[in-house]
């Protein structure tokens, strides 16, 4: 596996986003299936595993801790705070809450350490900037966790270049995690360059466009009720139908390049800069192996240019988030 730099860490060029094993795309797989995926990734040379307090309201951290704690020295562990499940109504039902207050960040970290069965989290992200709290205050709390030896490095998720620079003035930011793929180009506006200037990695989530660029066309009508794609404008019937028209030419380019559609999407990302690290997620070992094969795909300048022209912010129909979700991020217009 190729290696890339992520702050003070050297990690595999392709990491594993663990969210899918507990969260977001309908009913999660049984824990034993998640264990197989995690161990297969480790055995294949993946050294960056990404989870969060939010995913499964702690279930994903618990799974990662149970399966990987005994292999802790073999990988870089990333998790996130600032967005988690909270029993707001006192009825035992957890709801997603964004809370970047210093006390909450520190309490969340302690809970994550217990679930992950570790003494220290290598890379700890602020999952969302809580706009009611100055970014300097939230990053200040994370800096205190570094000094206390609870975490080793600080990351931010879904922030603008301006917010990144404000945060970096308080404490060095090792990584920015945001959605980046052929069909989501927001980081190209400014964050990608800001990361390069500040020496931060750009960790790309949803690098295969939430499954859209994986090969088989997604049947939106067959998505499970709790699948988050049901609320995303790009998967609304009219937009999805328009986007499907991009796939035949895309698949033809993949065939010409001698790789699978998912590998093409990931290889394109790897070619955009040495500081970019995609973290595809999957629930299947076969898909994991397919994704990791992208590290060995070399794309010509001609293929890169054709991909850029085929799938981009002007050819894709629909926004990436609905209005509510868009209001919670700091990256839509930066």
UniProtKB/TrEMBL annotation:
Family matches, as Pfam families: Aldo_ket_red
One cellular component term (GO) for this entry is: cytoplasm
Q: PROSITE patterns, from UniProt?
A: PROKAR_LIPOPROTEIN (PS51257)
- Provide the GO MF annotations for this entry: oxidoreductase activity
| Alphabetical list of InterPro entries matching this protein | Aldo-Keto_reductase, NAD(P)_OxRdtase_dom_sf, NADP_OxRdtase_dom
Q: Does the keyword Oxidoreductase apply?
A: yes
The answer to whether keyword Amino-acid biosynthesis applies is no
- Which protein is depicted? Aldo/keto reductase
